[in-house]
Amino acid sequence: MMGATQRIAMGFMAAAVCAAALAGCATGDAGAKKTAGAPVPKRAEAGAPVPKSALRLIGDGSTAFTGTQPHLPRPERLRPGQKPPQFVVFSWDGAGEDSQKLFSHFRKVARDNKATMTYFLSGVYLLPDEKRDLYHPPRRSPGRSDIGFNDERGVRDTVEQLRGAWLEGNEIGTHFNGHFCGSGGVGDWSAEDWKSEIDQAKSFVQSWKTNTGTRQASPLPFDYDKELIGARTPCLEGRENFLYAAREMGFRYDTSGVNDQVWPKKEQGLWDLSMQLVPVPGRAFETLAMDYNFMVNQSGTTSQGDRAKHEYWGNQMRDGLLSGFDRAYHGNRAPLIIGNHFESWNGGTYMRAIEETIERVCTQREVRCVSFRQLADWLDAQDPQTLAKLRTLKVGQAPTQGWTSFLSARSAPASKSVPGAPAAKP
């Protein structure tokens, strides 16, 4: 049987090749100081049981209500004239733990740099291969998945990381299940198809013990019906009908669109926290702030490109992300949205690039490296007029008269003209 590592990695690449024009290829041709941001999470012993006094098992005991999530900062409304913090969101599509141990590694990187993140779990990573027929993907026969399934060890290891991540203040979102891109994929799904996919993604989390025959392991310490408030669609496809389903199912945000580095607004009642375009150093175009997009621009659809270029490619991605960060940090302070995968493409150079980016930005003054949930909480706490004013700033544009004047109580009303996403589709 193919191990969890190979199955997850190879399955994703098979799906990714057909998505090069979407999530895989959206292109055109200061002194550091540790400061207040997300609270420094303590290491969560992933296998440690939750205190019984705080635990209420749900269903078969795969999940449990354990109270308010630890290490969540309390969002505060900006005072008149106060400069907004620089938010940075690092997020991960798929979020399974395999023999590469990248999930556990980046949990440590986050802790070391005062960061919390969002992990978009693929539900089939909690479904063992022998139970694959429990998955009924929309418009496909039961047991189909373009990213495969998992084995019992892979399920156990992934659950361990999810448990520890949540206890450290990170968010567990969803990347759905079968990752069907391209012709006949999620782009053709109806709102009802998306509801079915979301329900199944939840069910695999809520029944991982039954599906693996596990009895003694600790539950995941959250109620996934309440925890799940946001997602990123496979290959950024099918967003229009997904939004209808997500709104009806109580989601609070979506990050499946493409936008410039501007302040977000709501679409169909959900925060539009879209992926963003950032510079590609040495090139005349920008691309999505995601490892896969940099890879496609550098080595095409192969993940094993010229070894002699691996270091350069990783540096190019890191410097592109840092360039996007700098123009926001010194400009309009729009949140920077970054997406990744737990993969070792081109020798792991993109994982190095992400780690170096985290180390350089998350400890700077007035920077908060947070999850999407925490960003949505902060946005909800703000005066709508303040957010409308922030949305008048273009990419990299700092207020001409300074932040104190721009956001003072005596500021002129915000313009109704708000920069939006690029007209072209990814």
UniProtKB/TrEMBL annotation:
Signal peptide: 1-23
Superkingdom field: Bacteria
Alphabetical UniProt keywords: Signal
Chain segments annotated as coiled-coil in the UniProt record: none
Family annotation (InterPro entries): CE4, Glyco_hydro/deAcase_b/a-brl
GO biological process, one term: carbohydrate metabolic process
Region (Disordered): 60-84
Keyword presence, Signal: yes
Protein name according to UniProt: Secreted protein
Organism, scientific name: Streptomyces flaveus
Lineage: Bacteria, Bacillati, Actinomycetota, Actinomycetes, Kitasatosporales
